[in-house]
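MODEL INPUT / OUTPUT PAIR
PAIR INDEX: 1
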Amino acid sequence: MNKIELLAPGGNLDSAMAALENGADAVYCGLQEFSARKSAKNFSLDQISRLREWTLQNSKKIYMTLNTILKEEELAGIMEILYQLEDLGVDSIILQDPGLARMIKRNFPHLILHGSTQMAVHNLSGLRVLKDLGFSRVVLPREMTISEMAAFKTAFPDLEIEVFIHGAQCYGFSGMCLASGMLLGRSANRGECGQVCRTWFEREKDRGYFLSSTDLWAGTRILELEEIGISSLKIEGRMKSPAYAAAAASYYRAILERRSPEEISSLEDNLRVAFSRNSGIGHLKSTKGQSMVDREYPGHRGLFLGKTLGGSGHSLTIETSRTLHKRDGLMFVTSSGEARSFSLDIKGKTSLEPGKVTIPIPFQAPPKGTDLFQIQSHDLHSKSLNELSLPLYKKPVSATLLLSSEKVTLKVAEYQFSKTLPFQSEESTGSRGPEDKIRNEFMKSAQYDFCLSSLQLEGDGVDLSTRFIPPSSLKNLRREIYKTLDEVRRSQKEDKLRKLRESLLEDAAKLSSNRGSLPPRIELNPKDSRLPVLTPGNIKKAKLSARDGLPYLPLSPLVFPSDEKSFLKEISESTGTEGALIGIGNWGHIGMYQELVQKNTSLRWYGDSGMLLANSQAQLLMEELMGSETAGSYAWIEYSSSEIPVFFNKAGKEFKPPLFISRNCFKKHSLGGSCHECKRSFEYDLDQKDKKYKVILEDCLTWIFSGEENP
């Protein structure tokens, strides 16, 4: 059976170690820059070095997340980070930005690429593009079903597939959500998500958390994922506690090892206490999803203890099957949606046995029948780690040492380096030569971040077995060689980074300021359509915008596997033989365009807003994949107007991109509607303070746009 990986979040060093020591095979971690979870504590490079050494010694893995969109001026800075991560030998880079993919493939070939869920790759065309680019793994969106995943594995058996199995779900597709960036100036594509979906909205005087997704809780469904050949099971939660990381890893490890139902149930309780919202299996078994929204309360609910039997004043009575302890955290939610939490204070006792119990609370008791939850355990904590107790990683360097009676020559092929130093050795009176002593001495790397761990010794005109080297001379030789090699490494690093920075300037210069001239993006919206893109459902009836006699086809960023072939045929029919301009707004579109242009060479392309193109490297990658016959590209929509590089086109203030695109059905999941006799096309209004929002439901997909400000 497939050996599946359990991958856990490492929001900081404590969380990473807690997960790895409790059953995780690998952790994914972010640096303090360029991480899609900026609010997590994240890692310094020193901490990554220590964690890297620990994972190597314990047969575990560490994946680095550089999964944000990069601005042009940040490209030079991330080069040094990539250099250091390659030196550390991390097991992969998880990325979103097309430009970052290009830079790594061209300049850091030892770094392994994993496609982040932020890339929103959700069909065969997109998977093929990433596979051809050299990605070894793709992290699928949370919205894919098990049957769709199985089809992906059948089509690409050698491509690793990573799947989320637990934790928070976004309302919209990751990488397509613009709500926080457009409304708050805090881009989710830059790791600064303000969680607009977790706030309340109003609809026809009905107030609720209409967009607050339930948590994903795959549970034993992971055994089905193992069966179809999924490579990695991913637990969400880099902003959560070490206790959560440990509890989640323990729970899912127990399931993978087929432990007893009683043990798994106990571990499940611990995980719910550590952190859990209302939860379900998401889209794993249905394209429409199951139990996708909790409109009553968006936060941590914990473990359900029972319904209150009554209460008065500052006490309440409950019947529960769980032992409660002093300092356990408890909570209930009021009828108005307000969470009331408190620490259990039972005077004269340390615990309360299961059964009917009366407990004190610091405020007015809730009504009979109120749900009570445990949100914290008195003993569910992870120990804090002394990071200095973990040794730093030392890059292993292989070298050859040629020893003669009067000199020594060090050769390091990796750095194309050779140096000869004067050195005296003497005739040995013993029966053993100095090989072991030399190797042992050269393993001592002191303060340096590398180690001559593989040393080949050769005699240069002498028999090594007959030589003797005084210990003091050997130590001095080691110091001199390490110092020299360190200087070489530093010099080569600076030289490489200087050349890379120069190449970035040269690459940007290739993209002239008149690189295509696109009209304001609103002018490309299909006529007589409520959506700014062509979907499988509206392409046949939509009236296309045209310019210079050629139609523009702004494709929907969502093209699911079931629609892929038919949509490709409809696009081909819409382009005719006179040519057309295809809007590229998703990685899958690249693959579709590559197929279309084989049959119709008159086609051209333009980068649409959904592709999130923000830097010269991203544009150059697009041109390398699809040819330079482009009409231009719209800049990343969350750029401020003054930041947009000259080689991109501005979308224009009038263009309203969708804030959310969701596979959830707003009618079904947010409003409690039914699929029975559904018209599959609806429109709703939402309000929030001074803002109005338009919800458009088309063919079971929900599109949410920002409307006018309320008067």
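PAIR INDEX: 2
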Amino acid sequence: MGGQPLFILSEDSQRTSGKDAQDSNISAGKAVSEAVRTTLGPRGMDKMLVSDSGDVVITNDGATILQEMDIEHPAADMIVEVAETQENEVGDGTTTAAILAGQLLAQAEDLFDDDVHATTVVEGYHEAAEIAHDAVDELALEGDVDEELLLAVAESSMTGKGTGGVTAESLARTVVDAVEQVRGDAGVNRDNISIQTQVGASSGATELVEGILVDEEPVNEQMPGDVEDASIALLDVELGVRTGDVDAEYSVDSVDQLTAAMDAEEEEIKGVAQTVADSGADVVFATDDVDGRVASTLADEGVLVFENLSDDDVRGIASATGARRVGALEDLEDEDFGSAERVRTEKYGDEELVFVEGGAAAESVTLFVRGGTEHVVDELERAVRDALDVVTAALDSGGVVPGAGAAEIAIADRVRAESAGVSGRKQLAVEAFADAIDAVPRTLAANAGLDPIDALVDLRSEHEAEGRAGLIVDGQTREVGDPVEHGTVDPAAVKHEAVESATEAATLIARIDDVIAAE
């Protein structure tokens, strides 16, 4: 063939192959994992993330940290996807999942150095993950998930996070009350729980509102600010003079014609206002504009009106009050109205919020999160959101397991015990998986100021003797004990998802031996 070289890639492409590709990908994955490692546990530290525009985020929430980081390496981005998957599926455990993924990669790197093939490592990891899932199922506490366990789950998820001046115990009660409000025979409708934040008070002012909050203000200052036993109308219509879709010009030849046109418009305005007032509506939420003259008339009639609401707000109001959206005033009938025990407006600095409380449908609740600064409110919102998700997971996804590293100790012990039954070099990968799992309790110990090796030895010893051992951190106390007795528990779904997503990401990265990048 003449010996001419055959080029299949462009000259601008960069290619990294073999061990160099593996090393690059594994190093990137480990670097991302290490970035969140110090945030794990009740003594975890916070990270300050500063964007190009100068925006600052202070948090120890793993998912938030990874989302805010400006990551370009494709393998590192896979670890971010692990956290995102964990957050979307169960709402917590993102740091655990990221740490586990990083450790699985670190263990794989050592196995590669010992000439264990990547396919063997992947097969071993997947087999170990199945053992881990079985171990989590066996760890699940017996009996139904009662209120006491739900409170423990919520408090455990928020311990160590930035909750301002309010305790995790107090917030846990608010979170569990919110979940119980929207719990039905089919489970928890998480979409019916909203979170509204407002700067300007201590975090201790955070409260549960049985209804929804809308960031709007009345269209007229003279309207009532507090309406009890309210009849509520939702209107998809402009409350004013009707305008056509076609541009048209009208010729006015005399003062009489102008006067007649103005009188006709005024009559139409009065008719619209009177129709709304006569309908019996006490509160009107409109998705379109409300003419100032209509608003003035309705204010005189004692009707509270809001305009230009979003579809999301209207859906929330409909869900809470039972009101139906109406597209024309003449179609408004008695069965279209919703009701609420109280609709009130409250002013916070320059902002105004509408509270729709005690709606007839009673399907929606709102956690009204307060804080002295924007950073406190943001972090408190993240903590509350995680707590809501884990309580929902505990109820809907099957039980809870001991926390404080006890689940990981039990999983690692079970994986090591069963690794003896795995033949060939795959056994090395199964044992490596157990070593990676140990990274979680070791990290908890290091972040609590303990020697991670000594703590791991004590945890294993206690687990062998008592069957359950976690690292209990309470105030200045750091000891090995039964986490269930201390109220430290996690949803089983969090552990399942962390094992699953971390294993998938690590095995995907480990199998890559060629990276081709176009410039």
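PAIR 2 NOTE: DSSP finds 16 helices and 20 strands in the chain.
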